[in-house]
Amino acid sequence: MARTLFRNARFFTADDVAWADAVVVDGESFAFVGAAADAPPVDETVDLGGRTVLPGFTDAHTHLLMMGEALGQVGLTDAGSLEEIQSRLSRARQSADGELRGRGWLFDAIPGGAPTSAMIDAVVSDIPVYLDANDYHSCWVNSAALSALGITRDTPDPIGGRIERDADGEATGMLYETAAQQHAWAHRDAVTTDAQRDAAVERVVEAYLASGVTGAVDMAFDGLALQALRRAAERGGLPLRIAAHWFVANTGDDEANLAQVAEATRLADAETTGVRVIGIKLVLDGTIDACTAAMRAPYADGTNAAPIWPAERLLPVVAAADAAGLQVAMHAIGDEASTLALDAIEHAIAVNGDLPRRHRIEHLEYAAPGTAERMARLGVTASMQPVHADPAIFANWAAQLGDDRADRAFAWPEYEDAGALLAFSTDAPTAPHEALANMYVAATRASALDPDSPAVHPQFALPLDRAIAHATRDAAASIGDGAWRGRIAVGQAADFAVLDTDPFTAGSGSLLTARVVRTVIAGRAAYEA
After folding, report:
1. What is the second-level CATH architecture of the domain 1-55+487-529?
2. Quick check: pTM over 0.90?
3. In the structure, how many helices (H) and strands (E) does the chain have?
4. CATH fold of 68-191, please?
5. Beta strand pairing status for 496-499 and 44-55?
6. What is the C-alpha separation between 22 and 6, in angstroms, rounded?
7. Could you tell me how far CA 41 lies from the centroid of its own chain?
């Protein structure tokens, strides 16, 4: 492969020397980073026309198949009222075949924050309708869907989940946490064809490449996703660098839980095409918006939620995964859940001794004071999503807590100050997947969804260079790839994104209109606008 000089650009390196004006790519790696006048001889030269270049983004927490599917569903995140949701469903019904799926609705768009099947039935009653909430921890369905799922007043709540019921015990149309997974999502998996999954993978790859994303970490991996990514790789349609965490569900039985860890270990040790299985994913609690996150103190309405994984079930699983060399990623949004996660990691260290490990806690939307320092001591990565702090969706979050806990929401600087590794991601499709919009929220605490929403907690905004480093260098490091990718530096993989705007000079606001014009992975152009 030819040695290529890329010149006449501003390269943000996310490295010790932050800026360069030229790089040489030799094969799949950077062979030179510095001033164009000092570049070694090359076979060809590419003039980038003064554009700004960033290291390729790694979306360190995403859901690839779900995102690809979501891109083909009725979008409801910006539907600000029940009437608008109903209008969109009514229009979509005209072209729906068999059932209708939507995603992204917000609780504060629904009167009283209490969706019911009757609200959907009013506009679509003849076919099943499944609407995933914006946080993808709840599913709102109509009466036809309840019937298709076989849910009646006698259907029991699963471990870690709830079928919402009215005063007479009848299902109202809301499925929370594992009830959504075991009913609505299991049905989705059963009726979705391989061809539809393949189309979803193609959509997600196209969307990510156009956003400057060169790597992704799937955080709820299963056999269906594994097969879909393998098929894409065999077709030559999977240029993204993909790692995955195998989803482990709490069955309530230690033997069954540990069997899931053993399967993840087998996959991690096996040769896989298109994806590396590197760890396990555990969902310890729900979300603050739905009052299902496990909190030390109750919500504003006096309720609280227990962890989906109680300590007696969690500790053996984390210890077994740790002993097997798997990375453990634990979804923990509430402070009770993040404390439990760290207790489990400390237990694993005590049981297994001195091993190389870099475990992670996902989301950390509200964590107890001192959590960041404890994570730094234990070498635990803080995996956080700036787009979840978007002011356009913050009001309901804060209202559910109803007290000064909202003042420490998404406190990213705490993790920097403590010395914990901070990796940024989007958690798509629970939030928009676009990397530049994610950086806008990180650098401003203003809204990428609604320009009229004022910034919330601007004191937690980060300088743009640090925000980008968390989404490139640190996101790659969060899965152990920092030694070979994530920076524009000699010896690193030649993964980078070329922008049509320089947000460092034009200001953070330009991130909402800037476009990626070229995405390069391993020295080859994977996308060009």
Report:
1. Roll (2.30)
2. yes
3. 18, 21
4. Diaminopimelate Epimerase; Chain A, domain 1 (3.10.310)
5. antiparallel
6. 6
7. 42
